[in-house]
Amino acid sequence: MTAVVSPDTDAFTRALTSRPLSSPASPTILIADEHDEVRQVIEYKLQVAGFRTLTANNGGATLTIAADRRPRAIILDECMSCLDGRSVCRELHARPATAEIPILMLSESGRPDHGLPADELTVPCRQTEVLQRLSGLLLAGSR
Fold first, then answer.
1. What domains does the chain contain, in order, with CATH numbers?
2. Using one digit for the tens of pLDDT, what is the confidence trace for 94-119?
3. In the chain, which residue ranges form alpha helices assigned H by DSSP?
């Protein structure tokens, strides 16, 4: 519906008949975990929190999706078979197209790798902690 507004219409009427402002797009987060249930729970929680999501079930798919879709951040499971999370993280940061994407590594070991270009979170953890860490990564990445 397009309203016809004459040049002498007041500002209030023009505002009422103009198109609505579009809201900014929600950040897209790539979730990489080989366990379907874990991926689906994280995906659901992020969507409820207002994020758009992409998912990958292995390291190779993670590299491809990250390069093709350029998510704002990646939640990456450390323990994936074939190409583990640490190798994926190093490969992502070695590629110019994906080097700046922040990564939240979900680690079961509890031993952070300080040489790894990722923020690490030991699982199991609370949903609020994942969202807080992710928000921090997004804020730091937007500077």
1. 25-141 (3.40.50.2300)
2. 999 999 999 999 887 666 665 677 77
3. 11-17, 36-48, 59-69, 85-94, 127-141
